[in-house]
Structure formats: structure tokens, C-alpha cells
UniProtKB/TrEMBL annotation:
Protein name: LYC1 C-terminal domain-containing protein
Chain ranges of the LYC1 C-terminal domain: 153-337
Organism domain of life: Eukaryota
InterPro entries in UniProt: GNAT_LYC1-like, LAT
Length: 338
């Protein structure tokens, strides 16, 4: 085992990997449809480098050190995805070794790395260099998981309009400016987190959003779906907005990013956004609406049931900050799942 090293996968190894993980991520698709989707999305990736069975994507993250000074720091960050080990090679230490080597490969010059775990919290935490872990620490996060037939009503009337694809870039640019301002001034932050020292957020980017849109559009021909040009909703003043994508073949409409203006009736705006999402989802033949890390104050005021996520667990490693117990991941939403 000690002689094994990370190498860049050849084209043949990549193709074999796609065939291997079809059993894990090819739900509702034939093997060829699965491979075609991977090839299509490969052209849409964000500065990727393939290493063995892990996909690395460069993104940008922000940190806010609340103590001793309020300062937003911008760091390079990498997302790790598509970690997979074939069944016949499991429980031999290969995956653990790969993650350990990948941890060391990423850390020089990077402020952070993150991934989404479908195998619990321990495996990725043990990939670090410290004796008891120090790798990727799972971050607690909740979600709304609603049937498209769920009934709800807002306290006040909210005027909204649909977001078309041509509108998305301007919304993302505005969102980045607003989020940075909130990080710097501690605004629009809810929940009992006053003892936390470091805030972390992945910068929303048009490239990441477009990659997720492409994932939806890749299913149009393969699954015979017709995607409407409705990718979100916003209030009349543009201060509150939400973006989503259509997750076929899982049959879910998933919110990518939701911002509720602090000056608005946040619960009423959120309810109207979800109502519109349900209308669109039902028209597209989808069954459920998912919202990752919804605003807790709005959820509470709306009387909705929130659940703890049990899969796609967001897991974070900060190379510039060792005390992971004192970190808050802000806007831990689906837009970062790339």
C-alpha cells in the first residue's frame, strides 16, 4: 500500500470509472445514457482536474473571521466529487489511502476543500493528517422536503415574476455583492451561533449554476423531457430571489439558492417562492420540492416541518483554520454541489 501514489487518470481509466459508478449514480438511465451525460457535463466543468476516482473543481470560498476583526478573506478552494470504489476492492484501504493522498495534494496553496458525503461522517473526517481525524468535517444542515401537493398560505400578498435563464447572470452578480456585504457586517444571519469564530461560504458563480442547469438540460433528449425556461422566481423589487433546477430522474425540483431580504416579510416571501416552485414542478411532472439550508426564521414563522439531511452531507476542511468546531458554513445550499 505504501508504494501506491496518485496519478492523473488516463482516458481509458476515466471511461472505466464511469462504467463502474453507473450502479451508484445512473439511476433511471441506461449505461450508455449515463456515460453520455457524463461526457456532456465534462464539457461544462469548471476548471477540472481528474485524479483517480475523484473529480477536483476549483472554486472560490470566503471566510469571515469575527474575532479579532471583522474581515472577509478570499481563498481558493477545491470541491471533491465522484469519489467511488468498486465493490470488489472495498474494505482493503484503497479509498482511505486515496483520500489521505488527495488531502495532501490539495492542501498546498488552498484555503479550503469540501465535498458531499453519502457514507456518513467518519470516513472523510479520518482523511486528515492529525491522529483523530482533521480531514473533512460534516457540517450540520437541514432541508425542506415537500410534496408538490403541500398546502400553505402566506400572511401577506407577494408580487413575483419568474426568472428566465437570461436573467440569472445579473442575479448571481447581485447576490455575490450582497453576500460579501452580509459577511462583512454580520447581517441576515439567524440562529444561535454567537460563539462561532469563523464563517465560511462558497461564492455563488454563474459557471456553477450553468453546470447544474446543464445537468437538467442533458436529460431533455435522453429522458424525453421538455424543460421550461423557468429557473427561479424573484420579488418585484428584485431584493429577494430564488434559483432552482430540475433533478431528473430523481423527480425533484431543487432550490439552488434563496435569498430573502431582511426588510421583507420573509416567511410570506419564502412561501410564495415555494408555491411557485410547486406549480412549476407539477407542470414538469416532478413530485417533490427540496430546499437545502432554508432560512430558519422564515421556516419557523411559516410553521413548516424541517428535517435533518441524511445524505449528500456537506463536509468541509479548512487548511487555514484547524478548529473546525468553531466554523459556520453560511448559505450551505445546493448551488455549491458541483
Amino acid at each position: 500500500m505504501e508504494k501506491l501514489v496518485l496519478v492523473k487518470g488516463s482516458e481509458e481509466q476515466q471511461e472505466q470509472t464511469w462504467k463502474n459508478h453507473y450502479v451508484e449514480w445512473g439511476k433511471g438511465l441506461t449505461l450508455q445514457q449515463h456515460i453520455d451525460r457524463v461526457l456532456f457535463l465534462k464539457t461544462k466543468r469548471i476548471r477540472p482536474t481528474s485524479i483517480v476516482h475523484a473529480r477536483r473543481i476549483d472554486v472560490v470560498s470566503w471566510f469571515l473571521n469575527l474575532i479579532p476583526v471583522d474581515l472577509v478573506e478570499e481563498h481558493d478552494c477545491e470541491s471533491v466529487a465522484s469519489v467511488f470504489c468498486p465493490e470488489q476492492y472495498r474494505r482493503r484501504g484503497y479509498a482511505s489511502l486515496m483520500l489521505s493522498l488527495l488531502y495532501k495534494e490539495i492542501s498546498p496553496g488552498r484555503g479550503a476543500s469540501f465535498l458531499y458525503s453519502d457514507i456518513g461522517t467518519e470516513f472523510y473526517w479520518k482523511s486528515g493528517e492529525r491522529e483523530k481525524g482533521g480531514g473533512y468535517k460534516a457540517q450540520p444542515t437541514d432541508m425542506l422536503n415537500l410534496s408538490v401537493d403541500t398546502k400553505m398560505s402566506a400572511k401577506t400578498e407577494v408580487s413575483t415574476s419568474d426568472v428566465q435563464r437570461k436573467d440569472v447572470r445579473a442575479i448571481i452578480e447581485r447576490d455575490v455583492t450582497t453576500l460579501r456585504h452580509q459577511l462583512a457586517h454580520g447581517g441576515d444571519i439567524t440562529g444561535d451561533v454567537s460563539d462561532k469564530r469563523v464563517w465560511f461560504s462558497v461564492v455563488p458563480s454563474i459557471e456553477a449554476i450553468e453546470w447544474l442547469f446543464a445537468r437538467t438540460l442533458s436529460n431533455e433528449e435522453r429522458l424525453g423531457k421538455k424543460v421550461e425556461d423557468i429557473w427561479g422566481v424573484q420579488t418585484a423589487d428584485g431584493e429577494s430571489y430564488a434559483l432552482w433546477f430540475y433533478d431528473w430522474p430523481e423527480d425533484n425540483l431543487v432550490f439552488l439558492r434563496m435569498r430573502l431580504s431582511p426588510s421583507s416579510d420573509r416567511s410570506s416571501v419564502m412561501i410564495r417562492f415555494i408555491q411557485r416552485a410547486m406549480e412549476v414542478a407539477k407542470a414538469q411532472g416532478l413530485e417533490r420540492v427540496h430546499v437545502w439550508d432554508p432560512p430558519k426564521d422564515a421556516v419557523r414563522d411559516a410553521g413548516l416541518d424541517i428535517t435533518t439531511r441524511e445524505d449528500h452531507l456537506p463536509s468541509l476542511c479548512l487548511y487555514v483554520h484547524e478548529d473546525m468546531d468553531n466554523v459556520v458554513w453560511m448559505c450551505n445550499e445546493k448551488y455549491a454541489w458541483i
